[in-house]
Design brief:
The complex is a heterodimer of chains A (557) and B (198). By secondary structure, chain A is an all-alpha fold. Chain A is built from 16 helices and no strands. In chain B, helix 1 packs antiparallel against helix 5, helix 1 runs parallel beside helix 6 and helix 3 packs antiparallel against helix 6. In chain B, 35% of the residues are buried. The chains are: A mainly alpha (557), B mainly alpha (198).
Chain lengths: 557, 198
């Protein structure tokens, strides 16, 4: 009798009502749970944005295709761009920063846990608001639904005359709201890094992930804010009859371009610097060497942060700036290649002479190195104004920035998941499925984005919903679409791996990769309070010191 | 695990990091500065580009008195926090109230100016580029003053209830950082709108 009662009580504890579990997750202020929520949110939108990309590629597979209408095509590329930038990569990076930074610097939580939750939910509702436009965007006009103004929403396309209904408003408000969320999280990360480091964790001993997240957050503060300001101006124009971007009342459409790209270019670095952070954590561990040139890496990151604020108008060479402005922005754009090149040399220097272990996270990071180099080279090409005049607005540009965003950033994101999934869930991801995912994705990626440069050089403009046959674009577009499908299949494999390994994966233990940063010192998944006793560190590799007391790093630093 | 961490002897207490509230507020101020910069740039870029009147030269009057009010409220809030630090409750509450009063007076000044512009000169946000940029820049600042006044009032109410003591100095100083920021922004807005823009 009594044993039965005991069993029932145990079952009650085991199987808490799902409502309660949901309530715990929704009201959580724990940085690890919010990090996971950020990452899951990003995954959801990765799938949605991916489906939009597939629709675009099906439409462009052959000339005169009518798979989607021109209107739907415009919505698809607008939603794809906005989703991938604001609701996939940014939340993903914030999610990992949230999860890892407090653990890496030996803190029990972020500086402002409730601000953290608030910021996450702002971003989440921003994303849901953007997609609600499919239902509510028509407004009383019955005109169009989802936004179709392109992800940079140039004036005067966003004015009432050209965007009736509410589709542009959904875009504006979704981006504005998620922007406030980003500013909140960036504030939180900076305060955490500057005020919550454990004893001994001087800035000079902080993992590179900490430094790069710090620079990225600083960039968020300085460059997301101008976007928010421009969105407020756009709302004033649309709702209060203002004239900021109203050319008929003396306003300037070029001013919107400047404001957008003052945000838009640093944004690229907001997205890629966390990718650098992942590579800087993963490459040393799988090369079995400490990072090469730590101070130079930090200096290069800070340098990139500063220079990235002064290159925005290289997106605008074709609007007719004077030659002084053109020259300035060409030179700054070339200059930013220098610290970026230094980073690539440092990663190579880390691998040089190391005992390389080709595990899945490392594979993604190695592919990142090659692909980021090529992306940087086409970037230097496009940074030269005369070349840019020829190819701006063509598929060459699309190929270039997808090389950055997929080839560099997404590859590092995948690498980060393979590397930290064991810490977050306590289970290893399947290496076999992981390697399959890697190779399929590499093949798909190169089929799509290597070949996409060519129709661009042949004159194919971006954002066209179809094209005439016989211009030499047909077979390129066909192969590009095939590559996109392969990437889609690879991504499905990846998602399957995430789910299967969560239940069936081998137990990870505290430190499956024999790594050196503090997050690997606690159990997997880490306890709610992170550290029972706040650790004290004496070098850049605190876990190495702990594992090798006979030869600690602190002796040499 | 963490107990076993190799530690090089570090005297406890030697490890001091900046107060997170102030760091957070500094971040907010950086982000807000960027927002104001964009509005100021728009104001300067569009100065004199309106296709129709009224122009700033015709209708704007320099609000010297209200500017003095707002700027002196920076002094009162500074000395209020000094009083709080030393535990002078009466001085703190008095100067804190004076700060709210001066800030309120400034908002009243803005309101009176807007009333005059709208009813006497017919200038609204949709009249011309000057109206659009003027109301959004000055309005953005007035919005920040309003938010500041709400927060100051909350602290004042807690202070009346006897809940604000010298142990809250760091928090109150964080709020006073925001208030100083609002004042500095007004110096910029004042220079741009009432001196350069005319």
């Amino acid at each position: 009798m009594s044993s039965d009662a005991m069993a029932i009580r145990a079952a009650e504890i085991e199987g808490r009502p799902w409502v309660e579990t949901m309530h715990d997750w929704i009201t959580t202020v724990d940085h690890k749970r919010l990090g996971i929520l950020y990452i899951l949110f990003a995954m959801l939108f990765l799938v949605i944005g991916g489906i939009e990309a597939i629709l675009i590629r099906v439409q462009l597979m052959h000339a005169h295709n009518d798979f989607v209408s021109p209107q739907v095509f415009n919505r698809m590329f607008t939603m794809h761009g906005t989703t991938m930038i604001f609701f996939v990569i940014m939340p993903f990076m914030f999610g990992f920063a949230n999860y890892l930074v407090p653990l890496m610097i030996g803190a029990r939580d972020m500086a402002f846990p409730r601000l953290n939750a608030f910021s996450f939910w702002l971003t989440a509702f921003g994303g849901f608001l953007l997609y609600f436009s499919f239902l509510g965007g028509g407004g009383l006009y019955g005109a169009g639904n989802a936004p179709d103004v392109g992800w940079w929403a140039y004036a005067p396309l966003t004015s009432r005359a050209f965007s009736p209904g509410h589709s542009a408003d959904y875009w504006t408000i979704a981006v504005l709201v998620s922007g406030f969320g980003s500013i909140g999280t960036a504030t939180n990360i900076i305060a955490t890094i500057l005020s919550m480091r454990c004893p001994g964790m001087t800035l000079n001993r902080m993992p590179l992930m900490g430094w790069m997240t710090l620079v990225m957050s600083g960039l968020v503060l300085i460059s997301i804010s101008p976007l928010s300001a421009a969105q407020i101006m756009l709302l004033v124009d649309r709702y209060l009859g203002g004239h900021f971007f109203d050319t008929q009342a003396g306003g300037s459409a070029a001013l919107w371009m400047h404001f957008f790209w003052i945000f838009g270019h640093p944004e690229v670095y907001i997205l890629v610097i966390p990718a650098f952070a992942f590579a800087s954590e993963i490459i040393p561990v799988f090369s079995r060497k400490p990072i090469f040139g730590y101070p130079v890496m930090v200096a290069a990151t800070v340098c990139i942060g500063f220079i990235s604020m002064s290159v925005w108008a290289h997106h605008m060479f074709t609007i007719g700036m004077d030659s002084a402005a053109n020259t300035f922005f060409v030179l700054t754009t070339m200059a930013i290649a220098v610290p970026t090149g230094i980073k690539i040399f440092n990663w190579l220097g880390t691998m040089w002479g190391g005992k390389l272990q080709f595990k899945t996270p490392m594979l993604f990071c190695i592919a990142f190195l090659f692909q980021f180099l090529i992306a940087g080279l086409t970037g230097v090409m496009l940074g030269a104004a005369p070349f840019n005049w020829q190819l701006s607005g063509s598929y060459f540009v699309i190929a270039h920035f997808h090389y950055v965003i997929v080839g560099a950033i997404l590859f590092c994101m995948f690498g980060a998941i393979y590397y930290w999934y064991p810490k977050i869930t306590g289970r290893m991801l399947s290496e076999g499925l992981g390697k399959l995912h890697f190779w399929l994705f590499v093949i798909g990626f190169h089929l799509t984005f290597d070949l996409m440069h060519i129709p661009g050089v042949l004159g194919m403009p971006r954002r066209i919903y179809t094209y005439e046959p016989g211009r030499g674009w047909d077979s390129w577009n066909f192969i590009v679409s095939i590559g996109a499908f392969i990437q889609g299949i690879a991504t499905l494999l990846f998602l399957a791996n995430l789910v299967i390994s969560y239940f069936k994966g081998p137990k990870a233990g505290n430190d499956p990769w024999d790594a050196w940063t503090l997050e690997w010192s606690v159990s997997s998944p880490p306890p709610v309070y992170n550290y029972a006793v706040i650790p004290t560190v004496a070098s850049r590799r605190p876990l190495w010191d702990r594992k090798h007391p006979e030869d600690p790093d602190s002796r040499y630093e | 695990m963490s107990e076993a961490t190799t530690s090089v002897a570090q005297a406890p207490g030697a490890w001091t990091l900046p107060y997170r509230g102030k760091v957070g507020m500094a971040c907010l101020i950086i982000a807000e500065s960027a927002i104001f910069t964009i509005f100021v740039v728009a104001y300067l870029y569009y100065a004199g580009k309106s296709l129709t009147g009224p122009t700033p030269g015709e209708v704007l009057e320099t609000p010297i008195f209200f500017t003095v009010c707002l700027l002196s409220s920076s002094l009162t809030i500074h000395f209020a926090t000094r009083f709080l630090e030393r535990g002078g409750r009466g001085g703190f509450l008095g100067l804190w109230f004076l700060t709210i009063f001066l800030g309120g007076l400034f908002l009243f000044g803005t309101g009176r100016e807007w009333h005059r512009l709208i009813y006497d000169h017919g200038l609204t946000i949709s009249t011309n580029l000057f109206g659009t940029t003027y109301y959004s820049l000055v309005g953005l600042h007035a919005f920040h003053v309003t938010v500041g006044l709400i927060m100051l009032s909350i602290v004042f109410l807690f202070g009346l209830a006897g809940r604000v003591g010298s142990e809250q100095t760091a928090r109150v100083e964080t709020l006073s950082m925001y208030w100083h920021f609002v004042d500095v922004v007004w110096i910029v807005v004042f220079t741009v709108v009432y001196i350069l823009g005319r």
